[in-house]
Amino acid sequence: MPEARTVLIGCYGALIRVNRPLASGQELGIRCLGTGRETKCHVVSQLGSSPEGHLYGLEMPDPNANLWEIDFPPATESEMAAARMLLECKRCGKCAVSYLTIGEVEIFHKNRCVSRACEHCSDMTVWNEASLRNLLIEPATLPVDPLIGEPALSVPQRTEDERVDPRINLNLTGCVRSPRHGEDIVETENVSEGGVCFKSGNRYAGGEIVGVAIPYMQDAANVFAQARITWARFRPADGVTSYGLAYLHARRRARRVKPKTPITIGFIGSGVRSSGLPRRSGAFPTSAPPLRLLKCLTATGHCCDV
Fold it and tell me: On the CB side of 243, how many CA atoms lie within 13 Å of its CA?
């Protein structure tokens, strides 16, 4: 097989660009020139072509081959992540796809590094942006997004009371991929573990499925995740549109919402029956409930949606 260039890589396959045509289902042997590792794979399908060559999706049946010498954690670990990055242990040089919490995103934004546990070092170490010198990373030239799925017809805008995840105001450089706009370099306004708010001069439809990398490093390896555009708000003064997007695989968590109807709660305690009536004086005025009942209402005045 002639020399090929990867466009996207993963644990179970890759998207490559090659000058020679390949057939769907064709069995191949692939070797990474940077790491020297090799494994078997087969062609899934052709995803496009350009003057630089044909684009093919490859599937590797053995994920333990670790062709790229990069650790890919289980996708379930990304459900509570606010950002996804390819980081490198400063001590041993181990590379791994890392899922960062909101606090870790803020720390990395300020210090350009973050402390994480390294299995190879068996210790907490400092992690920087991965250099991937062995993989000979080059700037991306093709706006290809294999993450596109079926968009929803419409997605209602969420209100402030219905937001699930806490947000922090943080201006990060991100990249939104779509077949229509290619790679759109954007700036975030706030981030959370469930999604982000960003602004862009391009137009995205509500419910549109996109690939997003936050944070995004120019001319470096970036980690993209699937997300859906949930709302849009045009800003005439700036000539841009603010968008909200939610990660498709974010885990649903219990959320606090304001009740839409009054909640009657009984509290069994000293001097108060379960119906909320005092033992001696009969019915109490609604404007002045007993102290114990008032505390109970204050503590449980939010519904829980799991």
Answer: 28
